[in-house]
Amino acid sequence: MQKRTLGKTGPVVGALGLGAMGMTSGVYGVADRSESIATVHAALDAGLTLIDTGDHYGAGHNEMLLAEALRGRPRESYVLSVKFGVLLAPGGGFLGQDSRPEAVKNFLIHSMTRLGVDYVDILRPARLDPQVPIEDTVGAIKEMIEGGYVRHVGLSEVGAETIRRAYAVHPVADLQIEYSLISRGAEADVLPTLRELGVGMTAYGVLSRGLISGHWENTKARPGDNRGRMPRFSGDNLEHNLALVEALRRVAEAKGCTVAQLAIAWVAAQGDDIVPLVGARTRDRLNEALPAADLTLSADDLAEIENAVPTGAARGDRYPTAMMANLGAGN
Fold first, then answer.
1. Residue 57 a catalytic site member
2. Catalytic, out of 28, 57, 149, 179
């Protein structure tokens, strides 16, 4: 596995990262615990060293699952990216984001305990807290870095101005943001700002939650699968978006790869400062994704992909309307 560096100050990680959210049941349907753990082991063995989680994934279950999967592995052999601050209610309701300095420290100790580690590599607020200046939040993470509990500051789904304000307090390793062939809102202002400052990007949703994986069928999401609430997976939007996937499939077949491999490779090809997160829940999906790290796309390949899926071609927002207001970049 090739390596990439997250920004000027961040860690060196595998060219692909592992997003663990889907390993928690209730996000994309039922997840198999044993298979999830086996997938983490397979990812580490393949050279994927960056593992992304959040304290709200399964209300802490995701972190505990990772603790089991990582037990016995040398701490320096993996890089933990942890999001904090999302407030949950019994039954799964979202209550907002808490990024107060005292909350940063509280969330951190709970995450470290669940993960079974004495530090996390990258700590980031899951979303921008409109009630707390980002300077205060990053200042608290900086204190935790000075105390040896955190290695790097990260951000998630914030805009260019917030990135600048955060960076003025402490260098930022990376921004985590949705970025894929059909989610390119970061290209306008966010990505240029990252490159100006020397901040990396960890791109999640590179397969748009499976929509452009080549495996999604024009059927309703199963019970317990949150994708059923997302506009891109609904009604006529879904039919239109799957037509884009079929156009992409023709490019992939000519290239001798799968649709998923092509979509992941496209994200990786947008710059060495970008690390795509693969949200594989099974070893089969992981094994399909891995060859994307070595798939080279020529200028002609990129032009064909752009022709198949032009910028802005997808229909429907990437999140429900209420959630879109909390994002620093649009679709």
1. yes
2. 57
